[in-house]
Amino acid sequence: VVTDYDSSIQPTATKPIVLGFSQLGSESTWREANTTSIKEAAKEANITLIMTNAEQDQKKQFEAIRSFIRRDVDIIAIAPVVQTGWEGILKEARAADIPVIIIDRSLHVNDSSLYVTFIGSNFYEEGVKASKYMIDRMRHQPGKIRIAELQGTVSSTPSINRGLGFWQMLEAHPRFQITQSKPGNFTQSGGKQAMQEFLRQPRKDWPQVLFAHNDDMAIGAIEAIQEVGLKPGSDIIIISVDGTRRAFEQMVQGHINAVVECNPLLGPLVMQAAKEIMAGRTLPKRMITPEDIFTQELAARELENRKY
Ligand code: GYE
Questions:
Q1: pTM over 0.90
Q2: Would you say the CB of residue 186 lies under 6 angstroms from ligand 1?
Q3: Which among 81, 166, 184, 287 counts the fewest CB atoms within 10 Å?
Q4: In angstroms, what is the span from residue 297 Cα to ligand 1's centroid?
Q5: Minimal CA–CA distance to 291: which of 128, 159, 121?
Q6: Cβ of 190 below 6 Å from ligand 1
Q7: What is the value of ipTM here, to two decimals?
Q8: CA dihedral 149, 152, 155, 161 (to 10 degrees)
Q9: Burial code of 123-137, b = ≥16 C-beta within 10 A, e = fewer?
């Protein structure tokens, strides 16, 4: 049998794609679920995953991305901890001819051709949903409504846009006022600490509503609220974002009133995008995951369906 098959040229389909993923941290339940989803989906898709944890530090993300470039990975995925400051490192990836996918949090660059696509949620819409729920929930309570806001990581897209969506809905309802606001870095301990500080103010200034930018901070805040002898969910109405199983459990207990869903299970979409890019196909610039809002009435029924 004569063949001119050159064994040194492997068909690309048999060579696994190498994906370098700079995960931003491990600050929350959402993040754990996101990390697991990426790992499982990579395995499933036969993609070789090199994942690093930046512990909420942008400089560590830069180091990780540079190490991916040195290893000459096929694709780089980044979950950016903050929104700005990415231009330079993305140019380094471009100079090395490595396509970049942005996942979870978006970023601001002047030249959007520096990344192929952004896969993640609409955080502004999440803030709007939380605000609408609150305005409706408080409609029978007259007078000024004091709201405390637990922000996430300073300068991160979800914190900026959840805050903006929430706040812009209030413009038409001036009796709703954000009277206290602090960042809790998306962690349970950060949420608890910030809530303790809110409650150190005179009693007359205590909030009637708490909007927490994620579930972990809401859960931390619940501890602080209980410590001063108040009932979370009735003395203070609590709304948070993510929709973790832990938050659903708190809803079933009556401690959280509503949770806006934010889906961390991005793994399958990311792997699909990686394959499409390697196959030379073009992708939409933005891929959004469908999301809902859940209230106490549905919490018990939905609890068993929660995947994270
Ligand atoms: O809501 C929060 C996490 O970036 C959407 O980060 C994500 C947020 C999520 O720490 O729990």
A1: yes
A2: yes
A3: 287
A4: 25
A5: 121
A6: no
A7: 0.99
A8: -60
A9: bbbbbbbbbebbbee
